[in-house]
Amino acid sequence: MSGVETGRLRAVLDRTADRLLAATVLERIAIAIASTALALLLGLAIVAAAGYDPAQFATHLVVGAFGSESAVSRTLRFSTLFILTGVAVAVAFRAGVFNIGVQGQFIVGGIACVMSIVWLAPHLPDGPIGGLALLTIGTIAAVAAGGLYAAFPGVLKAYGGANEIITTIMLNFIAIGIVGWLVQGWFGAEDATSTRTERLPENVSLPRLVFDEPNFSIVGLVVTLATVAVVAVIIARTRFGYDMVTSGYQRSAATYSGVDARRTVVATMTFSGMVAGLAGAVFAVMIQGHYTDPGGVGNYGFDAIAVSLLAANNPVGVVPAGLLFGGLESAGSHVQFNSDVPVQLIDGIIGLVVLFVAAPELFRMAAKRAGIGGEDR
Amino acid sequence: MSARDYANGIPVRLGAIAIVVGLASALVLQSDVDLGRLVTIGFVNRSLEMAAPIALAAIGGLYAEKSGVFNIGLEGFMIIGALTTAAAMYAVGGSSPAQRHVWIAILVAVVVGLVLTMLFAVLLIRYEADQIVAGLAVWFVALGFAPFVAILVWDDRNYSGLASVDTLTIPYLADLPGVGPILFDQSPLVLLTAVFAVVAWVVLYRTRYGYWIQAAGENPEALDTAGVDVIRVRYAAVLFSGAMAALGGAVLLAHLGTFNGGGDTLTDGRGWIAIVAYLFGNYNPIGAAAAALLFAALDQLNVQFQTAGIGVPGKLVNLLPYAAVIVVLTAWGRTKMPASVGDPYESEE
Q: What is the pTM assigned to this prediction?
């Protein structure tokens, strides 16, 4: 195929993709809001059915998410992780690859970050310069580890035909098991009373700016937003991003315009895993300061799937979706201490959000029946 | 799969088999294992007990997929089944339930599973929800609501005061060497699973309704033209899959006799392994049950290693089934999926 023809095909594809995306952006936002509202309403109904006061529960949700400075910083702390892991999921889903293994890549990235810093710390000078060097090394280690751990199922899918949904889920279990075993054994700190690694040295931490919180730094949020911007630009403006998205939407067209489908799958998974690894580094440095049994680090990688879906797998859309989920999670911590309602309800509500997002027809039909819009689609 | 693809896959398959054989022989050589002490009747029975839940969910899942609907929510429905059984057993039998309470609880779990699957099926079929996303959502919903309900009922995510199902012992026959303790002193739920696998195979491959199910997944237009309601066949298959997964969860609980709502909950990935089991068994219910037995046996190896006094870290041996799934999927990944899986069907009327 000649270069001119390829260029024309690309232009046509571009225009089609643009129209498809623009036409549904508003509708998607409406569906995301409707899904969330419906899931929250069902959640309140369940609270009422279980014999609690739904109005009080709703108040707890709002106060727990935004009611005080500590609530806001807690919300932003969770949001940071949800946005990063959500972007990791979005990158893959956008390309039609289902990376359910963000949780595993997040864990592998976190432990790689902590261990590389702990091992190298004695060889580098103390003070801020050494700290910055260690932070850089730890971040690179996390990104590399996350990328490699995701490349593996990518290769298995591309060259072995193994369904990546199942392999990545299995690799989550395997990451939790192996890292758990390592933290209990070789990587375990000798002086620790609980299962954990050595602590990060004191010069390795993010500065406390704006919020005086030990577990949140605005630097983490800035890094996250910068990552979102970089990923968005890569997807929208680079050849790699273009190949990824076209193979997601139009596999045969992508192949005709010379995209190696197998290599794109591997590259997509690696890219997605690198972002997940970065999320692991932010979690390890900003929140934990060491690493514990990964069975208890929180299900960021799973909830990230919900975040990404709510954002229609758009990296920029992940920011508001991540804020919403961060708020829900933060409200959950508040509910746990101030109310009898079991906090697991929040996870169930998140599941309901995903369920409704999966069925846009539900809302289209409801809207049609109610006489609002929907006539042209 | 074309012949060329198949030929390309051969090195991968051979490699996978070589890896498994190599790992196994390394383990045997290194630890000087006496195989007779590892493979005992107790091991076979525990493996069968743990295989039954996976096999039941797998049979349900393959029916749904054969009809053209990928029920990736099996894990979620298993969790719901296990929780409902536990809660129902506690409701009717209190803290010391009798055998009849166990059976009532299993029945309740299947009915609840059916009702919830109906809602899921409506979302999938009527409202054309993305099957993969909706299936994942069922998993999330179950992961959240199962511990929630457990805390409402017992004030704790875990509850251990339940009963497990008694084995069915046939006098004299049970004393036969070898087969006696396995066939005639066995959990009735294991025997039921074996019957289900055979019946499911006969129905799918030897009855008219079975052909309808296959046609709904392969060529729904043709089935429609022949005057059969594709949508109705798919509803039936999805309902069956949810009920079987719930039954699988119920059987898991009835064998363990305790509910665990922490971490990945009691089901702990068995629903996912069920999906791999039917892929491995190439959509054949009996093959899927055999694959389930293989995974369950790998899972039980941990106990065997401990009783035989072999010092392998339990946390790592527990990962064997998951690693096996990856090897199996890579070596047998390209199974022949029904042509219309994932496509919503709309009649032309």
A: 0.86
